[in-house]
Design goal:
The protein is of the alpha+beta class. The chain contains 6 helices and 8 strands; from the N terminus they run E-H-H-E-E-H-E-E-H-H-E-E-H-E. The chain has a domain of 160 residues: 2-Layer Sandwich (Alpha-Beta Plaits), CATH 3.30.70. 18% of the residues lie in helices and 26% in strands.
Length: 236
């Protein structure tokens, strides 16, 4: 079994993370969240790595006869052949990547999402429960009621990128009905999508943002030669 990954966050993945932060269950309807317009800025692409897993390696010596171990088939039965009980999986994921994701829609819904991300009902994870975010995903100045999605993604500073800044950034946004689009992704959740696995196609528009050269950064602590301010960092 192979579980691939895209090179950037998907709309369905972000909606699943938000639904978890809001305390919703997997069987809950997420149609209200699916109406939002989605965009992502690729600040750092990262590297695609492979995580090898095996499932159903049992039976364990302490397993009772009625639970022989192994992975169940579609008919809910466990194969009698021990060799068929083991299912190897190749799971691909991104390492060292950085993205800025944005949503556009009804203000009150965005306010509830911001509050949920600030104080999530449950622990948040990226794709798998073993992959928690390495930094808070909530932005204190992320809710902007007077700015459109494209402008918000283009204007937000490149915080936290202490290596060399790229010369251009790739933006992927949901294309409106009258906008051109260049590719399609099936990642719009339909109803209880995370149980029924029902997703609709989304038209995506690719844009490129030129990064303006940044002047020398001021030193915030003159006694520490490594204490350099990066746009987007919080300075006490």
């Amino acid at each position: 079994m192979t579980r691939p990954t895209r090179t950037e966050p998907t709309f369905s993945g972000v909606i699943g993370l938000i639904a978890n932060a809001l305390g919703r269950m997997r069987a809950d309807d997420v149609s209200d969240l699916a109406q939002l317009r989605f965009g992502v800025r690729c600040d750092r692409p990262g590297d695609v790595i492979r995580d090898f897993h095996t499932a159903g390696a049992g039976p364990h010596r302490r397993t009772s006869p009625e639970f022989p171990g192994g992975v169940r088939q579609a008919d809910d039965r466990i194969p009698s052949d021990h060799n068929k009980r083991l299912v190897p999986t190749h799971r691909y994921l991104l390492s060292g990547a950085a993205f800025l994701c944005g949503l556009e829609g009804e203000t009150e819904l965005l306010r509830s999402i911001a509050a949920g991300l600030k104080r999530p009902a449950r622990p948040l994870f990226l794709g798998r429960k073993a992959n928690p975010p390495s930094a808070p995903i909530w932005l204190a100045d992320g809710l902007r009621t007077d700015t459109g999605l494209l402008d918000a993604l283009a204007e937000y500073p490149l915080g936290g990128l202490k290596d060399s800044a790229p010369s251009s950034l790739r933006l992927l946004v949901t294309a409106s009905q009258d906008e051109p689009w260049d590719h399609m992704v099936r990642d719009i959740p339909i109803g209880p999508a995370f149980v029924a696995r029902t997703f609709a196609p989304r038209r995506v528009r690719t844009l490129y943002l030129t990064v303006t050269p940044t002047p020398p950064f001021p030193i915030t602590n003159p006694h520490d030669p490594l204490d350099v301010w990066i746009p987007g960092d919080i300075v006490a």
